[in-house]
Amino acid sequence: MTEMNKARNSFVAVKSNHPIVDDDYIAWMQAMKDRVRTARYRAQVAANQEMLLLYWDLGHDIIERQRRQGWGNAIIPRMSADLIAEFPEMKGFSERNLGYMKRFASVWTREAILQAPLAKLSWFCHIALLEQLKDQESRLAYAALCAEQLWQRPQLVAEIKRGAISNFGQASNNFGATMQIADADLAIKAIRDRYNLEFLGVTKKDKENKVRRTLVERVARFMLELGAGFTYAGQERKIDVGGDKFSMDLLFYNVRIHRYFVIELKTRKFRPQDVGQLGFYMTAIDEQVRNPQIEGETVGILLCKSRNRIVVEYALKNFKQPIAVSTYELEQMGLSSAQALTDGLTKAIAVK
C-alpha cells in the first residue's frame, strides 16, 4: 500500500471517530505535512552545505600550500593520517577523498557551491560529476537534473552514461494548453522522452501482455526510471463506469504536484485513438478517486514503441486533458543502466 493510500485510509478512520474532521481538515493537514517535509529538507541541505564548504576549504588549502610552499603530493598521505588520528569517528579523510577535495576546489568557486543546484548535491554526486564529465556546462546541467530528480550517485552515473540530459522535458505533450504554467513546467520536467525498460528482460518480439505483466512485477525498478516524486497507486486498476468494467495499466501519484498519473503501455507505434482511451481512464480517476480540493487533474502518459511527432501533435492539439506521449527501449544500448548502477555503487563504497 502506498503512502498516499495509507494517508487516505488514516483520514477515513479518523473521520469515523471524529465527525468534525472534514475535507477542509484533510487539505489543511496536507499543507502541514508539506511544511514539515520542507523544513526537514532545508535542515538536511544546510548540513550538506557545511560539509561541502569544509571539503572545499580543505581542497583549496592543499592547492595554496602546494603552490606557495612547494609541497608535493606527498603531503596528502600525511594530512590524511593526521586528520584520521584526530577525528577517528569521521569519514571522508582518506587520501583518495582528499584528492577529490583538491579537484573540487580547483573546479568550483566557493560562491558557486553555496548556490543551487550545487549546494543541494551530496558529496558522492559531486565526485560523479568530476569523474564523468569534462566541462562545466555539462556538470551544471546534470547537477540541476540531479537535484530536481533527487538522484543518488549510482543513479546519476547511470543517467550520465545514457545521456539523460537530452531526454527529460522532450516528450510530446499538450501540458502548456491544459495546465497552469507552474504545474506544466513541473510535469514536463518529470516525464522522459524515452524510457529505458531493458531491466524487464523482455525483447521486442514479446507480446504486449508479457511486457505489461513484467513491468507490473518490477514496478519498484520502474519507479526509479520514472524519477522523483512518484508513488505507486495500483496495477491494472479496475474501474466501474455505469456498470461496465474497465482495467487500466498502471496508476501512480506524484507527491510533488499532487496529481495522479495514468500510464498506458503500447508495444506498437502511437495511434491517435490511443488518446481517447487514455483520456477515458483519466476522467474515471478524476471522477472516482481524485480529491479536487487538494489534487490537480489527472495526467496521462502513453508509453509507445515509437511515434510520429507530427501525428502526436495533431492528436493532442484540441484535447483538453494533459497527456504526454513517450517512447521506450527494451534492449540494451551500450552500457546498461544496471551495470552503471553497479559501477556507481562500487565507487561510492570505495570512497571512505
Mean pLDDT: 81
Strand fraction: 5-15%
Overall shape: elongated
The total number of structural domains is: 2
Helical stretch count? 14
Assigned CATH architecture of the largest domain = 3-Layer(aba) Sandwich
As a percent range, the share of helical residues equals: 40-55%
Write a structural description.
The protein is of the alpha/beta class. The chain is built from 14 helices and 9 strands. The strands form 2 sheets. Strands 1, 2, 3, 6, 7, 8 and 9 form a 7-stranded mixed beta sheet that branches. Strands 4-5 form a two-stranded antiparallel sheet. The protein is elongated, with a radius of gyration of 24 Å. The two termini are 36 Å apart. The chain folds into 2 domains: 39-166, no CATH class; 172-329, 3-Layer(aba) Sandwich (Trna Endonuclease, Chain: A, domain 1). The model is unreliable at 1-16 and 332-352 (pLDDT under 50).
